[in-house]
Specification:
By secondary structure, the chain is an alpha/beta fold. It folds into two domains: 2-214, Rossmann fold (3-Layer(aba) Sandwich), CATH 3.40.50.300; 217-277, no CATH class. The chain has helices spanning 39-46, 64-74, 90-98, 106-115, 129-142, 159-172, 187-193, 211-216, 225-228, 269-277; strands at 2-11, 14-23, 28-32, 54-59, 75-78, 147-151, 179-183, 196-201, 204-210, 218-223, 236-242, 245-251, 263-265. The chain has a six-stranded mixed sheet, sandwiched between helices. A four-stranded antiparallel sheet has the order 11-12-10-13. It has a three-stranded antiparallel sheet with strand order 2-1-4, covered by helices on one side. Strand 1 and strand 2 (14-23) form a beta hairpin. Helix 4 runs antiparallel to helix 5 (129-142). It is globular. It starts with a strand and ends in a 5-residue tail after the last helix.
Amino acid sequence: MIVFNDVWKMMDSFQLKGISASIPDGYICALAGQNGAGKTTFLNLLLGLYRQDKGTLMIDGMNYSDDEKTIHDLMGAVLVDELMNRELSLKENGLLYGGYYSRFDNDKYTGLLLEFNLQPKTRFGRLSKGEKLKCQFAFALACEPKYLVLDEPTANFDPEFRQDFLRLISDFVADGKRSVILASHLMEDLDRYADYLIYFDEGNLVYSGDIESFRDKYRIVSGEKYKINLINKDNIIHMEERKYGAKALVRHGIGSDYDKALQVTYPSLEEFMYHYSKRVKR
């Protein structure tokens, strides 16, 4: 289990502010929020690339100050930055970097490369962006990690491979002992893959928990503006007038009452992000 407790991190003019969140084992956890909300800083703290200014980060009861090598062995990562040597072949990269992981399985790595239509003798620098991410994904899986950390992996995948990707990460967490932490600006991917959510806004934590509970907290309400205005104004996060009526993101809870003429639906993550980013900040 991963636990952030009141974690602060200052990065130039940006600050991650008092984040307390946990990621239990067995989940695909989405990190969501607008660009610059804090997702990458959170990931870099999780991978030990940054150290928090205040607060504690515990990974399976360990911290980076005392147990860096052990934690490193638990992590498999696919990041936007290229993690492999451009001049070496995929096979040579595996042999080189696999030596840093105690559970690296070279046969599994080679098998995954071939499954992903990548030739082990190909030089890494000759691959397309999507192929490089596939290679890094194969390497991460072959390290047999407990936590698979993925930063924008699907943006450069072809539609066919996205199906394989979903199958592989679903299989990865199927035993209930491992977790995937996935950041993406493609909200439809997160809606599709994730069953746990951590949502950031300007360095603040908005929500941390299972995605069904998140959806239960909010509704998208569409219809005539005056009927939406009958809802308690403290529950209306943002309303937008349109040519044929209005649409609003509202907080939902026990006792929420909506006019029967209104259309009430669960928000997608994309709808939530759109309206939440446009709210009037108090």
